[in-house]
Amino acid sequence: MTTSLAQPGTGRTPPPQVPDALARASSLVVPALDAAVERLDPSLHEPVRHHLAGGGKHVRAGLALIAAAAVGGAEGEAVPGAVAVELVHNYSLLHDDIIDGDRERRHRPTVWAQFGEGVAIVAGDALAALAIQVLLDAPAPAPARMEAARRLADANQAMISGQSADMAFETRDRVTVEECLAMERDKTGALLSAACAIGAVLGGADGATAEALGEYGEHLGIAFQAVDDLLGVWGDPSSTGKPVGADLLARKKTLPVALALGLGGALADELVSIFSRAPDQTEIERTTRLLERAGVRDAVAAIADEHLRQGLGALDRVVLADKPKEELSEVARYVTARDR
Amino acid sequence: MTTSLAQPGTGRTPPPQVPDALARASSLVVPALDAAVERLDPSLHEPVRHHLAGGGKHVRAGLALIAAAAVGGAEGEAVPGAVAVELVHNYSLLHDDIIDGDRERRHRPTVWAQFGEGVAIVAGDALAALAIQVLLDAPAPAPARMEAARRLADANQAMISGQSADMAFETRDRVTVEECLAMERDKTGALLSAACAIGAVLGGADGATAEALGEYGEHLGIAFQAVDDLLGVWGDPSSTGKPVGADLLARKKTLPVALALGLGGALADELVSIFSRAPDQTEIERTTRLLERAGVRDAVAAIADEHLRQGLGALDRVVLADKPKEELSEVARYVTARDR
Question: Which ipTM did the prediction report?
Answer without folding.
Answer: 0.93
